[in-house]
């Protein structure tokens, strides 16, 4: 997995729609998402990159990204990519996380980008759930990067559990 770009991306309609959808979901369903303020930097059929800014509300007493903000970042990176892919496929889903494993390698003392490159696996899960009519659970790999560090500052394994619904 290559280090993500920290440059401001050019205007992208899909990214704008994704950010508005994430903001609305946060306001309506999970206010903590709105409080932390994640911003989607890149989204396509395979990858989601999302940034959480380094600011007082997301920091701990060591002036690095707080554990809860890391959890929101990993959750949104995997969960929103699943929602996005399901919507593009025209399939409604319910999703939850069955497990959450985090390995913190360094403190995040800057804006942090969370990246999930599991689009192909998620697509397969959605289609398999629709075909079988049952819940499917698989592990997603998500990494967190800061601009200052050459390697990920954290690595997450989230057990995504989803079911296609009619």
Question: What's this model, at a glance?
Answer:
This protein is of the alpha+beta class and 166 residues long. The chain has a single domain, classed as Hotdog Thioesterase (Thiol Ester Dehydrase, Chain A).
Fraction of residues in helix = 25-40%
Alpha-carbon Rg, integer? 15 Å
What's the number of structural domains? 1
How much of the sequence lies in strands comes to: 25-35%
Tally of helical runs? 4
How are the strands of the largest sheet arranged?
1-2-4-5-6-3
Question: What is the 3D form?
Answer: globular
Order of helices and strands: HHEEHEEHEE
Which ranges are low-confidence, i.e. pLDDT below 50, for 5 or more consecutive residues?
none
β-strand number: 6
Text of the CATH class:
Alpha Beta
């Amino acid at each position: 997995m290559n280090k993500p770009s920290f440059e401001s991306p050019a205007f992208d309609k899909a990214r704008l729609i994704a950010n508005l959808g994430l903001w609305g979901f946060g306001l309506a369903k999970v206010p903590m998402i709105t409080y932390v303020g994640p911003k989607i930097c890149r989204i396509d059929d395979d990858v989601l990159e999302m940034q959480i800014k380094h600011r007082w509300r997301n920091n701990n007493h060591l002036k690095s990204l707080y554990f809860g903000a890391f959890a929101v970042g990993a959750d949104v990176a995997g969960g929103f990519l699943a929602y996005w892919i399901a919507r593009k496929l025209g399939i409604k889903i319910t999703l939850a996380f069955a497990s959450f494993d985090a390995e913190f390698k360094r403190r995040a003392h800057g804006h942090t980008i969370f990246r999930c490159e599991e689009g192909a696996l998620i697509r397969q899960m959605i289609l398999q759930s629709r075909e079988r009519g049952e819940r499917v659970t698989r592990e997603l790999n998500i990494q967190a990067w800061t601009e200052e560090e050459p390697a990920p500052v954290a690595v997450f394994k989230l057990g995504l559990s989803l079911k296609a619904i009619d």
